[in-house]
Specification:
The chain is built from two helices and eleven strands, in the order αββββββββββαβ. It is α+β, with helices and mostly antiparallel strands. The protein has two domains: about 30 residues; about 170 residues, Porin (Beta Barrel), CATH 2.40.160.20. The protein is elongated. This is Outer membrane protein beta-barrel domain-containing protein. Keywords: Signal. It comes from Rurimicrobium arvi.
Length: about 200
């Protein structure tokens, strides 16, 4: 009888362990493993953002906490190009909080019509050539994973951009209508630089 009891207990234990193993395997199959895609393409946008009002960008994570990116878009001062390096505070496959440092270049615009700007002759519509502008920007980012495998990301950012060159432009026409101090201030507001607010979507490839 003792032998039968011992054999029964061993059979029950074996079946229990087998069932637990099968359940664990089934559970692991039902939950997709988190993926990490170091390369992504995205749609950055914002006010004073690196790519301007809207653009396209690419980012590559070359180390656990570091990535490099570049992109192009269009803004208030013509086409805009940027290169950026980011540091991610957590090792979470380029999600969570990050700090970015970027160089941006706006091409300027030729023969742009500026409506109702203050000149020495009063408010007038004037034609201008906007010269290229270079900036250095620093920003705080926060990324959220999207989708079942969290390989896509949504982000919000806030930062500040500083002009590396003077904001220059040429008022055209005859006779020339020089801008007043208020008119010059308006142009400085339109030029790249100052507060940066951004958002965007990046898709892991």
């Amino acid at each position: 009888m003792k032998k039968i009891a011992i054999i029964s207990m061993l059979l029950v234990s074996t079946l229990s362990v087998g069932a637990q193993t099968e359940n664990t395997q089934e559970s692991s199959r039902s939950k997709p493993a988190a993926a990490c895609k170091p390369f992504s393409l995205g749609l950055p946008m914002g006010i004073g953002a690196n790519a301007g009002l809207i653009g396209i960008g690419a980012e590559y994570g070359f180390a656990k906490h570091f990535s490099a990116g570049a992109g192009a878009g269009i803004g208030s001062w013509g086409y805009k190009y940027f290169g950026e390096a980011k540091y991610y505070f957590k090792d979470d496959c380029f999600k969570g909080s990050a700090l970015g440092l970027a160089y941006t270049y706006a091409t300027g615009i030729s023969d742009v019509d500026v409506k109702g700007i203050e000149t020495v002759y009063g408010k007038k519509d004037v034609k201008m050539d906007l010269d290229p502008v270079s900036n250095l920007a620093i920003a705080y980012y926060h990324y959220w994973g999207m989708g079942r495998r969290r390989i896509n990301r949504f982000y919000l950012s806030v930062g500040y951009s500083v002009c590396l060159s003077s904001v220059t432009y040429t008022v055209k026409g005859y006779p020339v209508s020089p801008l007043t101090g208020q008119g010059a201030t308006t142009m400085n507001v339109l030029a790249p630089g100052g507060l940066v607010l951004g958002l965007g979507f990046y898709f892991g490839l």
